[in-house]
Structure formats: C-alpha cells, structure tokens
Amino acid sequence: MKQSFHSHFDRDLTKAGSAVLGEAVRRRLLGQHEAMIHDQQWAQFCVYARDSHEVDILEFVNKKLVREYGEELYIQAYQGNLPQQNVIALLETVHSVMSFASDGRWKGSAADAGSRLGFPSHARITVPRGLDRTRFEAAMVDIQALHSEQLATLIRLVRYLGMSMLDAFFFDAEDAHKEAEAENIFYAFSKDKREHRIINISDPEQIVILDKAAAFQKRHGSRRPKPAAWRTWKSKNLPAAQELLLSHGLNIDDCRAAYACELYQRSSGHHAPILGGKAPDDEDLEARNDVAYELGHLHIWETDAYVGARAYMRKEPAGTGRKAVSQ
After folding, report:
1. Which tens digit of pLDDT belongs to each residue from 206-262?
2. What is the DSSP letter of 311?
3. Cα 308 to Cα 84, 153, 284, distances in angstroms
4. Do 159 and 14 belong to one domain?
C-alpha cells in the first residue's frame, strides 16, 4: 500500500519535505536528480521557517509564510546577494513540496511571485519637478484659489511629509503637531489605526505644514473623517487636483518623489540616484530602507520609483542548467 503524503504533515519540517520528495520519486512524479535539488533547497526554506517564524512542522506552512519567504529572497536579490533566477528556483521548491504534500491542493506558482510583490519596480527616470519649492508653492496658490484650501493642505502633506493622499486625508494633524513640537517626531497611523510609523521632523517647514493642517481640521471639524467621505472626496476632488498640478508640470507621485529624494539625501549624505548621486552601496541601501519606511512600509525595491534605480544591482547570469542554489 502506498504511503499517503498527508502522513508527513506532523513530522519535522526538514524530514517531512525529504519524505514527500522521496514519495514523489517512488510514484514517478519527480526525477531522482530533481528531487535531490529540491531537497537541498527545501532545507534552506526550513532554516528560514524555523529561525524567522518558529515553524518546525509541515502542517504549519501556509501561504503567508511562503509569501514572506519570497519577500526575503527578493530583498536579497535587490541587494545584489542573490540572482533573481535563484529566487524563482528556491520558491519553486517550496511550491513543489507543498503541492506534493497536499496531493495537488496547494495552489501557487513561483513564476509570478515577483509580479505579485511588484519586483522589479518601475524605476524613475525623470527628476521630480516638485523639488522646486517655488514651482510647487505656486501650484498650491492656484489650487487654493481655484479649488479649496483643503486640497492644498492635503497636497502639502504629500509633498513635505511624504504621505500618500489616502494617508493625508485620514491624518490627525492636531495630534501630530503636538507630538512634533514636543518631541520632534510624530506618529503616522494607517487608515484603520492598526499600524503606525514614526516620522522624524527634519525641516522647520514641516512644523509649519502640520500647524496649518491642524488649524484647518479644527476649523472644519475634519479630524476623523469616515471611509465614505474619502470615496466621495476622491471621486469629486482628486481629478481636479491632478489637473491643476499637471498645469504646473507636477503630479501627486512627483510630489512624493520630491520628498523621497530629500529624505534620501538627509539619510545618506548623497543626492538620490535620479539626481546623479552615487552613494556607497551600504549607504544607498540604508537610505532606501528609510525612504521605504517613511513613505509607508514599502518594499525596498519600490523606492526605485521615487529616487531612481540602484547602481549596484547584480547582473543576471545566463542559465546553463538546473542545479541547487543557495542564499
């Protein structure tokens, strides 16, 4: 009687994977050489699962764990420590073992993991025009005169604090202003208040922006808007904002990119790559981590869209055949 794959689910993670692969070979679902490669690469996943998530049996491997493993691998690829083709091979092993272990009920593909994570990211190729504060403020004068003070206030939060328009709409500027004046930092919360990040005040203009935003919210009673208010505001006001910004050669993403470039320079001491900066590799990565965090917990490779592409990305070697890879 053939052994069921499911009998391995409560076993030690490394041994269970080896047993699953061995069973797949016996059933002629997998070749001996390919199984050997998968076994070596499965062992690397097991180290990650135990060390990072304290997962040590097959039963506790889930899509969230595999997704986070993929994110870690793509970070290694972005840092130049792992060719992208190796990332695909390592993820393919995990999906293969889990598919065999569940008799095909595990659904997932290594091939599209990068696209789901947005890797690689589109890289900015133009200098953000919002870096010119005179141009930006001229646009704000027009927006306030032709549309509304609220719209100008929100876009200033985007430009000078790096927020998304969504975060700016739900932002409690009064609390942030008090925190900034007392501690030179403030807390930026997600819309549902479950996550927050700490933003450092580095420019007196940021205090001024917070003060103006707090005053506006106090006058208009808009500190805690409802989700429905965002949907209405987005459909009625955001197109007008984009059109008015465009007339000045700007857009919302350009404003955030301008803030990101300034933050990159403060963090690394070098201009952003899009501005011709050539920070050493470790300083570049540290600055990008700061940018990714302050803009809202982005993946580090998503900073390419704001500050330009990394100059130290490893060139991908041509594939010459299947062999085990390591991190």
Report:
1. 999 999 999 988 887 766 778 888 899 889 888 888 998 999 999 999 999 999 999
2. S
3. 20, 27, 11
4. no
How far is residue 67's CA from residue 65's CA, in Å, rounded to a whole number? Answer: 5
Q: Of 93, 116, 139, which residue is a domain's last?
A: 116
Q: State pTM to two decimals.
A: 0.85
Position 83 in a domain: yes
- Report pLDDT digits (tens) over 61-116: 999 999 999 999 999 999 999 998 999 999 999 999 999 998 889 988 887 788 88
Does residue 323 lie within any of the structural domains?
no
Task: Give DSSP secondary structure letters for 3-62.
Answer: PPGGGGTTSBHHHHHHHHHHHHHHTTSS-HHHHHHHHHHHHHHHHHHHHHH---BGGG--
User: Among 289, 284, 291, which residue's Cα sits nearest to residue 306?
Assistant: 291
Boundaries of domain holding 230: 124-311
